[in-house]
Every structure is written in C-alpha cells, then in structure tokens.
From TrEMBL:
<feature type="domain" description="Polyphosphate kinase C-terminal">
    <location>
        <begin position="502"/>
        <end position="674"/>
    </location>
</feature>
<feature type="active site" description="Phosphohistidine intermediate">
    <location>
        <position position="434"/>
    </location>
</feature>
<keyword id="KW-0597">Phosphoprotein</keyword>
<feature type="binding site">
    <location>
        <position position="48"/>
    </location>
    <ligand>
        <name>ATP</name>
    </ligand>
</feature>
<feature type="binding site">
    <location>
        <position position="374"/>
    </location>
    <ligand>
        <name>Mg(2+)</name>
    </ligand>
</feature>
<feature type="binding site">
    <location>
        <position position="467"/>
    </location>
    <ligand>
        <name>ATP</name>
    </ligand>
</feature>
<feature type="domain" description="Polyphosphate kinase N-terminal">
    <location>
        <begin position="11"/>
        <end position="111"/>
    </location>
</feature>
<keyword id="KW-0479">Metal-binding</keyword>
<keyword id="KW-0418">Kinase</keyword>
<dbReference type="InterPro" id="IPR024953">
    <property type="entry name" value="PP_kinase_middle"/>
</dbReference>
<dbReference type="InterPro" id="IPR025200">
    <property type="entry name" value="PPK_C_dom2"/>
</dbReference>
<protein>
    <recommendedName>
        <fullName>Polyphosphate kinase</fullName>
        <ecNumber>2.7.4.1</ecNumber>
    </recommendedName>
</protein>
<dbReference type="InterPro" id="IPR041108">
    <property type="entry name" value="PP_kinase_C_1"/>
</dbReference>
<dbReference type="Pfam" id="PF17941">
    <property type="entry name" value="PP_kinase_C_1"/>
</dbReference>
<feature type="binding site">
    <location>
        <position position="563"/>
    </location>
    <ligand>
        <name>ATP</name>
    </ligand>
</feature>
<dbReference type="InterPro" id="IPR003414">
    <property type="entry name" value="PP_kinase"/>
</dbReference>
<dbReference type="Pfam" id="PF02503">
    <property type="entry name" value="PP_kinase"/>
</dbReference>
Length: 709
C-alpha cells in the first residue's frame, strides 16, 4: 500500500501522515527552536498521534477485520507498517525528550521524578498531596469477579501492583489532569539555584500507600503508567432528524466504550501485571501494543510552563493592522470600497468579530447567516450573533454536530443559540458542513445588498492565533448571491442551484478542479505557458492525483505545498518528474488552501475550505472561492512565492519520505516564510528571491535543444 498501486505511484495516506508527524518531531530536535517550544512540539507530536490512532488506525483496523479475505491481509500488513513506524518515532521521541530535559537543566530548570527528591522536597510533596491531590483520586481495585470499568482514552492511568506476603493485588488510578496541573512547581534543593518541576503522577507515587488509606496490607507498592486509545467512530445513521441530537449524545457515550486500538505502557511493568491487563482489556492481535517509557499523555507538554527568561520560548509577532479598515467609518463602509483579505494570525481575528458586531447593531442590516464548525469556548462570534437577535435581526446559524471531538461542545452551542432566538440548522443529511461562510443582508435604498465572508479556517479566536488562514471579506454581489445560495442548499438540500463563481462540494467541486487541471494540460500540450500551484493540508484524492500525473506528463510544472498527508509521489521519471512538493512546519500551523492555475499568464486564484481529499470534495459542504481583486491576487502570489522559496522550514516530499530539509547554498539568504510573510504584510515589501517558475523543465529542455540545432 505504500508503493505502487494499480500501476500508479501511491503512498498510503496513513504512512504519509506519520511522515508529517515526523516533521513535527524534527522541530523538537532543532537547536534553533527555543527549548520551551521544542518541548511543546513533543506535546503536539503526542496529541497528533493520539488522534491518528483514534481515527485513522481505527479505520484501517476495521478494514482489516471486515474487508473481503483478499483485502484483509493487505490491511493487516499496513497495520504492521504503521506499528513499526510508530515504534521508530517513539524511540526518537524518547531521545528528544531526554535531550530537551538536559537543555532545560543547562538553563537551571529541572523536571525531576520522585526518586530525586531531597527531604525538604519530599515533605513539600507529601503536604501538597494531602491538601490538593488525595481528594481527587478514585482508585479501582481489580478482580476477576467484576469487569474493568471503561477507561477514558483522554486520560492516563497508573497500573498499580500491591504486594504482601498474603497476596498480590492490582489496581488502576486515573491521573486527574483535568482538575490539576500536570507539571507542578516545587521548592529547589536546599542551597541550590534553579527552578524545579515534578509531574503529578510522580507526586502520587511518593504517597502511593496512602492512596489506599491503609485498607490493604502491603510490603511493596509500585505504579506504571498506561494509556488506552479507543476507536473514535461515532456510528451515526445518515438521517438528520429531530432526534439527531439525541442520537449524537448516545453515540458520544458509545465512543467512550469504543474498541481499543492502542495500548501504551511502561516497558518496566512486570509481566504478571502486563499480562493481566492485556487479558482483562481484551486486547487482540489487531491492537497496537506500544511499550514506552515512564511517561505517557505527553500531549500535556503543549502546556509546559516557561519558568525561565522569555527568550526560551517563541517570540510573539505583533499583530499587523489593516489601514483600510482602521481608517474607514466602519467595516461595512470599507467593504463597499474594496475587498479585504485577512491572513491570520498576522492580522487580528478581531476584524472578523467587528464585522459581525457592526452588522448586529446596524439598523439597515436585515439578516445574518453563518456556518460554525468549531468555535472558541468563550466565543465573541457567538456573542455577536446573539446580540444581532437582540437587535431584531433574523439570524440563522448552521452548527455542525459532527465536528470530530467538538461534538459535545457543539451540542451545547446549538442549544445556547436556540435559546437565544437563533434559527439553528443542524447540518445536512449524510454531509458535514465544513464551509466557512457568513452572509449579511443589508437594505440599501430600494435593494438588499450582500456582505460576505468566505474563508479557509474556523470562526475560532483561539486557533486563529496559531493557525494560518485566509478570510475574504467582500461586497461583490455575484459572490454574495452564491454564498446565499449555499445557505439555501444547506437548508433545503433538494434544491440544486447553479454556481458560476463558487466551487461547492458536493455539487461541482470535483468537476471544477479537474477542469482547471485539464485546461493547464491543454496549454502544456500546445507548448504554451502553464503551471499549477496547490497549497493544502492533505492531498489524497486518487482521481485528482492521477490528473496531476497526467499534467506532469504533458509538461505542466506542478508545485505542491502540502502540510500533512500527500499520497502523490513527486519526481517519478515518466510520471511525475514535473511535480515538486514541499511541506512547511513552523511556529504557526499552516492551514489555508490556496489553488493557483497559470492560465497562459492570466492566473486564476482560489481560496478554499476544502482539502484535496475525497471526503472533502464529495461528502462535505465546502466552498472554493475565486479571488478577483488584482491587489489581493498579488498578495496571494507573494505569499505563495515566499512559501515556495522557504529554505529554513521547508522539507522535500518525495518517495522515500525522508523529510530532508530543502538545501540552501551558503551564499543564499535564509528564507523563513512565516517570518517574511509577517514582514511583507507589515511593509508591503518582498525580499529578493526567485519567483515561482511556471515554465516546464521538459519544455525548457526542448527549447534549449532546438536552439543548439
């Protein structure tokens, strides 16, 4: 599955995803990255891996179990490839963890365990345990007569062995990291400089006998960390009816009881305890058994505190103002003069909430419609929409209840909006609504005019500070009319509107994308200028990949900037030698989708909510929007040029998945695209660098050969 498939170069998306997570781990190993941020990259890597097992490995596991016999072995082999890749990454993770702890120690910051405490520190830990921790603990004593309770796959547990002359007992204890910090500062060693942290579970280990309150006789007590990852599939039916919220709630309860797909355990655990847990948890040969070190749930490193000077952490970039908005009477009047393209987190998300807050109090605004996929916990977007209802606007909000891992939050959100008088639409039967749309209708004279938002990212203030994304704010009435039609399709999905400008999944996105590639193929076949640049999170749709291979064979240069999964294999002679691909991993998570088609020197530019995956193209409501404004096209091209020129954080995607950093000549200036994008948006000036060359290398060879003759 990772090599040739049906005569076409193809990398299994799961293995490609692991290659992406390796790029995250590379950041944890980069000495140029501040050490606190390196430790947080370890947390990001771990959090990513959790979701990978809950979703992608769970899918492969089901395929291995339920596919026809001819296919089962193929999926079982893929599961084994995944397991071996994860083990290699886990070994690298452990090495990076140890190296980063040493770096912290050089900075006089210490993360110690219970065996390294002196008397004063031990006394502090015991006091802290009795005053803060003990009341949060609910140990479970295991026995064969009763089933093991369902373990929460978001938590870590201590698997405990209690030994006495009479008998050996086993127990489980959930570490209460939702109520207490995982990393707790304690006093330093007497007479020693430095700042000291200890993990919550190690505090519990110090007082392990007291967890059981003297009930059991014990000569020895030992504890080993375990983590269980479950299948996150919700098993929802396809019909969205008035009982949909009830079905979702029941499905979320079932998720907590989903089949195990990964069991991670301390490799020092004694065999009798390990064998007991494997038997009682019902782990089978399709489940990934991952031995590791003492610590699991390393996603908590994402919140690792900086106890040292500010330079040990990433430097915050100042938010860039948008003068056109700031100078206008209000944001709506600004949009009547020009389209605005916001690029988060370089620009403030407050401009977007300002749009909604302005519309909420403008007497001329009649209605607001918005599609919400993920929002922040204390969302100003939601506050603005509720305020619009209070100001007598008609407000309609599409809430996607199937936003993976945000389902419970979105159930509560839908109820809050409904209680506030908002007309709530709970998605579309059989489809996820993933588009990022706002439609504002304003009465202007005798006609109603549209103010629209079409974006690549969620309406979430929190993620907008760490994800890069684009928001187009426009007064273009043709686009506004089609955005309104998308909302009409969501509300009445039996209606089939015509879309001249927007690509709308699942209605016309596939045919539009393929037609745009086909146009470049025709230009390339005729020896004309041509080229394709695609920036996305994931590229795994087989039909589109085959079309890009066809484009390469026709001499069309294809440039890919893919953050995550890429099943396409660049640089294969006779198939994809005109395709180059890079992936950029840096301080901000690259999230926008931007598609550029050269079109014989009159490029067509698009931003999209849709990744190039079959699910996004065919089974979600997504919107791809053309950018018509020449100044905004220039801005997009400049940002893409910067990304393509990146020689600091760009890795080459190739058949070997080696994640080699793009080479840089000693004489060449460093191009770190995220920092230079900030500089460009601040000043309007680009550094000197090579522009994207859309001329095919095949055609150049032909021209040079002809010139020699």
């Amino acid at each position: 599955m990772s090599g040739q498939s049906e005569g076409t170069a193809w990398i299994a998306k799961e293995l490609s995803w692991l290659s992406f997570n390796e790029r995250v781990l590379q950041e944890a190993a980069d000495p140029e990255v501040p050490v606190i941020q390196r430790i947080r990259y370890l947390g990001i890597f771990s959090n990513n891996l959790d979701e990978f097992f809950r979703v992608r490995v769970a899918d492969v596991r089901r395929l291995a179990a339920f596919s026809p016999p001819s296919k089962q072995e193929e999926y079982k082999a893929l599961l084994e490839e995944i397991r071996q890749s994860v083990l290699k990454l886990q070994h690298r993770f452990d090495a990076m963890y140890r190296e980063n702890l040493k770096e912290l120690q050089r900075r006089k910051i210490y993360l110690i365990n219970e065996r390294q405490l002196d008397e004063t520190q031990t006394a502090f830990v015991r006091g802290y345990f009795h005053s803060h921790i003990q009341q949060e603990l609910v140990p479970i004593v295991l026995d064969d007569a009763n089933p093991i309770p369902e373990l929460n796959d978001a938590s870590i547990y201590l698997a405990i062995k209690l030994s006495s002359e009479q008998q050996t007992r086993f127990a489980l204890l959930e570490i209460p990291t939702t109520r207490l910090d995982r990393f707790i500062r304690i006093p330093g060693r007497k007479g020693k400089r430095g700042k000291v942290l200890i993990a919550l579970e190690n505090m519990i280990r110090v007082c392990l006998p007291e967890v059981f309150r003297g009930i059991f006789p014990m000569d020895e007590a030992s504890a080993y960390t375990i983590k269980l990852t479950r299948d996150a599939d919700l098993e929802l039916g396809e019909e969205v009816t008035h009982t949909f919220v009830e079905k979702m709630t029941q499905s979320l309860k079932r998720r907590k009881k989903g089949d195990p797909v990964r069991f991670v355990y301390d490799s020092a655990m004694p065999n009798d305890l390990l064998d007991y847990l494997v038997r009682r948890l019902g782990l089978g040969r399709l489940d990934s058994m991952i031995p590791g070190g003492r610590y699991h749930n390393s996603k908590d490193f994402m919140r690792f505190p900086n106890l040292g000077p500010a330079y040990l952490d990433n430097k915050q970039l100042p938010v860039i103002p948008v003068p056109a908005i700031d100078k206008a009477q209000n944001i709506l009047s600004c949009l009547r003069e020009q389209d605005i393209l916001l690029h988060y987190p370089y620009h403030s998300f407050n401009y977007l909430t300002d749009l909604l807050k302005t519309a909420a109090i403008d007497p001329a605004v009649k209605s607001i419609k918005a599609s919400l996929y993920r929002v922040a916990s204390n969302s100003h977007v939601v506050d603005a929409l509720l305020n619009a209802v209070a100001n007598h606007k008609e407000v309609t909000v599409v809430v996607e209840l199937q936003a993976r891992f945000d389902e419970e939050a979105n159930i509560a959100l839908s109820q809050r909006l409904t209680d506030g008088g908002v007309n709530v639409i709970l998605g579309v039967p059989g489809l996820k609504v993933h588009s990022k749309l706002i439609s504002i209708v304003r009465q202007e004279g005798s006609v109603q005019k549209y103010y629209s938002h079409i974006g690549t990212g969620n309406f979430n203030e929190k993620t907008a500070t760490v994800y890069t994304d684009f928001s187009l704010l426009t007064y273009d009435q043709a686009l506004g009319d089609e955005v309104a039609k998308v909302f009409d399709f969501i509300a009445y999905n039996y209606k089939r509107h015509e879309f001249k400008h927007l690509g709308v999944s699942p209605l016309n996105s596939r045919e539009r994308l393929l037609a745009l590639v086909e146009h470049e193929i025709r230009q390339g076949s005729k020896g004309r200028e041509c080229g394709i640049t695609l920036k996305c999170n994931n590229l795994v749709d087989r039909e589109l990949i085959d079309k890009l291979y066809e484009a390469s064979s026709a001499g069309v240069p294809v440039r890919l900037i893919v953050r995550g999964m890429c099943s396409l294999v660049p640089g294969v002679k006779g198939l994809s030698e005109n395709i180059e691909a890079i992936s950029i991993v840096d301080g901000f998570l690259e999230h926008p989708r931007v598609y550029v088609f050269h079109n014989s020197g009159e490029p067509r530019y698009f931003i999209s909510s849709a990744d190039l995956m079959t699910r996004n193209i065919d089974f979600r409501v997504e919107v791809t929007c053309p950018i018509y404004s020449k100044p905004l096209q220039e801005t997009l091209q400049a940002i893409i040029d910067l990304q393509w020129a990146d020689n600091v954080k760009a890795r080459i995607i190739d058949a070997s998945q080696s994640n080699t950093f793009r080479p840089r000549k000693k004489s060449s200036a460093k191009v770190r695209s995220q920092l230079l994008t900030h500089k460009y948006l601040s000043t309007g000036k680009l550094p000197r660098m090579a522009k994207l060359d859309y001329r095919s290398r095949l055609k150049l060879k032909a021209v040079k050969s002809k010139a020699k003759k």
